[in-house]
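Reading a protein record of the kind used here takes only a little practice. An example makes this concrete, so a full record is given next.
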Amino acid sequence: ILDAVAQWERAQIAMRTRQALGAKRRRNEYTGGRPPLGKRVSGDGTTLEDDPQEMAAIETARRMRAEGASFQIIADHLTSAEEDGEKLYPTRSGKPWGKATISRLFR
């Protein structure tokens, strides 16, 4: 009987945790881990806000995809695009854009 009660309690805790994290996401609050692409943790440390550079990269990727570009071509363009010697679409890590990252934008 104790095992059954413990199993039920674990299920209840998991359900409440999922519900609480879902509510935080709906309120655009930071739930831990790496923020989604296009977002960053705001100065207060609890909410998410748009990251203008990443949002520009996302918009460029969406436009290029609508025009028929492959994920690899989009990644190459985002990596190589520069203005006055500065990258227009830097990644968080500073590494080149990858086609897997681009493909996740369209899921």
User: Anything to note?
Assistant: The chain has a mean pLDDT of 92. Strands lie at 39-41, 48-50, 82-83, 86-87. The longest helix spans residues 2-26. The CA atoms of residues 43 and 77 lie 31 Å apart.
